[in-house]
Amino acid sequence: MLEASAPPAPFRLPMVVDEQDIDELGHASNIAYVRWIQDVAIAHSAAVGLDVAAYQQLGAVFVVRRHEVDYLRPVLRGERLELRTWISTVSAAKCQRATEIVRLGEPGVEVVAARSVTTWGYIEIASGRPTRIPPGVKTAFGVTV
């Protein structure tokens, strides 16, 4: 497995916790965290030129194979968050993406609310079978080929 160096600054996506994210206990639900992890991955991919249309043109796409999430602190309605993500490792047909969900408070005060590692498999769209990640896709995410 090829270790990918984290970019100088991870891809960042700001957001505010919405009412729909809150569960019956009054804090963001685990489902919201997993959705945010996926949302920041998709936004990062689009930001490097790999949106849905680009993957369709390549004939292959990344799909989630596994999520590991460590929930460290609660997140509440109306709080400002920053979702941060980067590719941490790459192999022939899969990669791992690290993500942090960070609560933003007063200037300079940040609290990591969750950390995750997601394994993404690269598959042919037509067959659903694993296929090698092309060098151009690796390069787009800052992975040295």
In words, what does this structure look like?
This protein is α+β, with helices and mostly antiparallel strands and 145 residues long. The protein has one domain (2-140): Hotdog Thioesterase (Thiol Ester Dehydrase, Chain A), CATH 3.10.129.10. The chain is 21% helix and 39% strand. The protein has three helices and six strands; from the N terminus they run ββααββββα. Strands 1, 2, 3, 4, 5 and 6 form a six-stranded antiparallel sheet that branches. β5 and β6 form a beta hairpin. The longest helix is centred in the N-terminal third of the chain and has 18 residues, at 30-47. The termini are close together. The mean pLDDT is 93.
SSE-based structural type: alpha+beta
CATH homologous superfamily grouping: Hotdog Thioesterase
> What is the third-level CATH name, the topology?
Thiol Ester Dehydrase, Chain A
**Beta-strand level of the residues, as a percent range?**
35-45%
Q: So what's the overall shape? A: elongated
Q: In DSSP terms, counting alpha (H) and pi (I) runs of 4 or more, how many helices?
A: 3
- The residue fraction in helices comes out at 10-25%
How many extended strands? 6
Name the helix and strand elements from N-terminus to C-terminus, one letter apiece.
EEHHEEEEH
CATH class group: Alpha Beta
Radius of gyration: 16 Å
The parts where pLDDT drops under 50 for at least 5 residues are: none
CATH level-two architecture: Roll
Tell me the distance between the termini. 12 Å
Largest sheet: 6 strands, antiparallel
Determine the mean pLDDT.
93
